[in-house]
Amino acid sequence: MSTEAAPSGVWFAPGRVNLIGEHTDYNEGFVLPFALPHRAVVTASAVSGGSSRVRSAQQDGVVEFRAATVAPGEVTGWAAYLAGTCWAFREAGFPVGEVDLRLDSDVPVGAGLSSSAAVECAVGVALAGLAGVPVDPTGLARIARRAENAFVGAPTGGMDQMASMHGRPGRLVFLDTRDDTVELVPFDPPAHGLELLVIDSRAPHAHADGEYGARRADCEAAAAALGVPALRDARPADLPRIADERIRRRARHVVTENERVLQVVALLSGGADPREIGPLLDASHASMRDDFEITVPHVDVAVAAARAGGAVGARMTGGGFGGCVIALCDTGRVGAVTAAVRAAYAERGWPAPVVFPGRPSEGAGPLPG
Ligand code: ADP
Ligand code: MG
User: Ligand 1 atom closest to Cα of 108?
Assistant: First the structure.
């Protein structure tokens, strides 16, 4: 009989915020997220036989399933994110035994900061750690995405998991969603006397799923009208060839947004003052508001108030119809920008927004002891 203790440990994975590149992922384009300091932490241990047990400090109860055999549809609700990652890890050809997983996360849920990817990626690195499998960040990100798409049943792109896996302090994760290649781009606001404020608008999410599907369909129609495989392959000069006015505006958002991502990357990689990206953040917001029509009053008001309060650039981040706004501010303006947004909300009788600094942080891995 072995006296060796079963493998166990503590692993984490962060939430993320997207600096720029919205609704470009399903058009095979570019995104530029970074990992947040907010994380999901999983305390994991292998258990012999029986079944797996998962708990969350943010949920009641214990959920049990057999990780060795679990299949889509057998676990629903919050535990599907954990069971689904076990399933996807196994489907990728890795060994999965029964596990005890205790989850605790400070990533706000449903704010568009990807609490779901944080959970999946934390479970993914935990399973890899327990199995002694070397961590391939892109491979684990794909497993985590498969859990969300095929087990939970949420048709999302791969940005969230890639940011959670590849994030680094002081770096953006520049992702080409066509081939999943990643380049880390320097972005360290405090080193330049700046802060990137994340403002949770707390807007009520309305019709987001249906609108997301409608935008995807419009983008497919635009690509078909232009005869390109995806809008990634279109240029601004192509746009007049789209006859339908709405489809043309949708395409214009995606085409110009991809160009803005590349411009931000060129500026920051070239060592420019990060303040120079301000106008690109503003242009991204205008494009989402006017051409893609995915903003709502709560985010438009936050963006306008942040700019009026002295932010050098501001935009909605995430899929839209609520969620968060980011505002790049000189450190000395953080108080004024926060106060301006709070005042604008108070004036309208809206619940106060939650504001915190978003600083690029470490991606998923073992929790340092
Ligand atoms: P988000 O934008 O935060 O990723 P999603 O709807 O994609 O929003 O994912 C949120 C879901 O992820 C929650 O409803 C829950 O099922 C699961 N989840 C996130 N964090 C936790 C947690 N700490 N404990 C249990 N489940 C969680
Ligand atoms: Mg999510």
Answer: 3
- Dihedral sign (CA 329, 335, 338, 343): negative
Say which DSSP state 167 is in: -
Ligand 1 lining (C-beta closer than 6 Å): 56, 58-59, 78, 81, 103, 105, 109-116, 119
Rounded Cα distance between 324 and 163, Å, is: 17
One digit per residue, the tens of pLDDT, for the chain of length 369 reads 444 678 999 999 999 999 999 999 999 999 999 999 999 999 999 999 899 999 999 999 999 999 999 999 999 999 999 999 999 999 999 999 999 999 999 999 989 999 999 999 999 999 999 999 998 999 999 999 999 999 999 988 899 999 999 999 999 999 999 999 999 999 999 999 999 999 999 987 766 778 999 999 999 999 999 999 999 999 999 999 999 999 999 999 999 999 999 999 999 999 999 999 999 999 999 999 999 999 999 999 999 999 999 999 999 999 999 999 999 999 999 999 999 999 999 999 999 999 999 999 999 999 988
The secondary element (H helix, E strand) that includes residue 15 is strand 8-18
**Beta-carbon-side half-sphere exposure of residue 74 (alpha carbons within 13 Å):** 16
CA of 117 to the centre of ligand 1 (A): 8
Going from the C-alpha of 282 to that of each of 19, 24, 203, the distances in angstroms are 12, 17, 20
Q: Which amino acid is at 333?
A: R
| Helix intervals (H) in the chain | 79-91, 115-131, 137-146, 159-166, 208-226, 245-269, 278-290, 297-308, 334-348
Is the dihedral angle over the CA atoms 291, 296, 302, 305 positive or is it negative? Answer: positive
279-to-23, 109, 285, 298 alpha-carbon distances in Å: 19, 30, 10, 21
Domains and CATH numbers, the chain: 9-19+35-172+362-366 (3.30.230.10), 188-357 (3.30.70.890)
Atom 14 (ligand 1) nearest CA: 78
